[in-house]
Amino acid sequence: MSVTVHLVRHGEVENPKGVIYGRLPGYHLSERGRNQAEAAGERLATADLGALWASPLERAQQTAQAIAARHPGLEIVTDERIIESGTTVEGIGRSALAFARSPQHWWHFRNPWGPSWGESFLEIKKRMLDAIEEAVEGAGGREIAIVSHQTPVLVARLALARRRVPPWLAFTPCGTGSVTTLVLEEGKVLSAAYFAPPI
Fold it and tell me: Which of 155, 147, 104 is nearest to 129 (CA)?
């Protein structure tokens, strides 16, 4: 029996200071992000969703709510396993200048394959696949949507496709508000589709 998995990245975040926010609380969707969430919701409006799971972080919850609004009676399951990847650089700026001004963080970037700056890709893969498997089991043969974050979505997509490359080397698109749809059968990807909001 085939299984359809929709991997959704939350919409754009309001981040006026341009920091790496990671798992920090208080980062909500921007106006553009809310529009992206609505577009993702519209994209999945006709999907036969039997499960809608979301990361506990605000931006993922807001995106999941836009999807749930089109599926009356479908509850959002909040699960810590699909949260943003852990990182040691939360709170510092994203620019090269901000990084240069934070020498205490330089050592954390010694091994990009690990990655040494936070949670390993293997840890992310395990928790994401465990959550997806549980969501599939609870969906009763219907489609599932998992609302998460860039790195977890990329890691899950590559793992489901059985590709063994770090996320940044896969050249796989994963824009804010995007929906990656995979149809799986016996552990193999039968088809894949990618939707990016035109916003």
Answer: 155
Which of 7-11, 82-86, 118-122, 146-150 shows the lowest mean pLDDT across its residues?
118-122
Helix then strand then coil, in percent of the chain rounded to 5, is 35, 20, 45
CATH of the domain at 170: 3.40.50.1240
Domain of 93 in residue numbering reads as 3-195
Sign, CA dihedral 148-113-96-107, equals: positive
Query: What would the mean pLDDT of 141-157 be, rounded to a whole number?
Result: 97
Q: Residue 169's CB: how many other CB atoms inside 10 A?
A: 11
Distance of CA 194 to CAs 122, 148, 179, 181, Å?
Answer: 24, 15, 6, 6
* Separation of alpha carbons 107 and 100, rounded Å: 12
Taking only the tens place, the pLDDT of each residue in 82-126 is: 999 987 677 676 666 666 566 665 566 677 777 766 799 999 999
Single-letter code of the amino acid located at 4: T
191 sits in which H/E element: strand 188-195
Q: How many domains does one find in the chain? A: 1
C-alpha–C-alpha distance, residues 94 and 180, integer Å = 26
Q: Diameter of the chain by CA atoms?
A: 53
Beta bridge partners of 179: 8, 195
